[in-house]
Please model this.
Amino acid sequence: NNILSKLLSPKVNRWSVAFAQHNKFSKSLWRYNEIKNPRGRFLADPFVFENNQNNYIFVEDLFFKDNKGRISVIKINEKDYEFLGVVLEEDFHLSYPFVFKNENQIYMIPESSKKNDIRLYKCLKFPYKWELDQVLMSDVSATDTMIIKQDNTWYMLTNICSSTKGENSSELHIFYSNELKKNTWKPISLGNPVIFDSLEARNGGIFFNQNKVYRVSQSQGKGHYGKSFNVNEIIKISKNNYIEKKVSIINPLFKKGITSTHHFSANDKFAAVDFARPQRLRSALKN
Model:
C-alpha cells in the first residue's frame, strides 16, 4: 500500500457541497445539486445566506497546493449556481464561515484557530469585501464558532480543547454576552464543556424552522473525521443552562462514493450539505 501510495500519490478526502430548495425540509439529500469543485481545491462547511432576495452559500475553499482554506461564495437559484470566488483570505487557514445579520449589518465569524482567536468580520460590500471588526476572544484554540441571540442575550457556541493537545472535536463550550462586540464573553453557569463527547460536541451548522433552533453536530469515528452528523433541537439555552435533543442522524449514504458528511445549513428556502469522497491527490490537483 505504501509503494502504491508513492507511485499513485496519497489518497485524500475531497469534500464537496450540494444544495437544493428544501421544500420545508422534505427533499431528500440525494436530490441536492452538487457544486463542482474548482481544480485543485475542495469546498466544505456551507452556510446558506439570503440578502436582497438573492441566496448565497459561503464555504471553506481549501487549496491543496498550500493546504490553506479561504472563504468563497456561490450565488444560487432554483436550477443553477454561479461561483463568485474567494471573498476573504488571510495568511492563515480560514474555514467554517458562519454568516449572520444584526441590525442591518452583515457579519461573519470564520474559524481562525491557527491564529488562536475568534474573529468577527464586518461586510463592507456584499458579498465581496470584508474587514476585521472585533476579536471576540483571544488566546484560544477554538473551532467552528456560531452565535445566536435569545432574549436580548448573545450566546456563543464553540469547540475548545481544554487540554493542550489541540483536539477540538470533543468539547462544546457556551459563553454569553449582553453585547455582540465584546471580548469579555462569560461561560454559562452550567460549566464548560456543556458536552464532552466526540460523537456529539463539534458544531456542523445551524438552522431555524418553525420558531425552533437546530444545532447540527459532527460525529467522529475512530480515525474518521466527519463520519456523519446529527440534528439537535435546542430546547433551552440561557446564562445558566443548555439542553438539546437529538432528532435525526445523517449518514453518508445519499451520494455515490461518499464516505463522510459533517455539515448542514439552511434558510427558509434553500439548504446545503457537504460530503467527502476519497480521491488520489494527483487527480485532485488536476481536476
Q: What stands out?
A: The chain has two helices and 21 strands. The first strand starts at residue 11 and ends at 21. The helical segments are 2-8, 281-286. Residues 2-8 form the longest helix (7 residues).
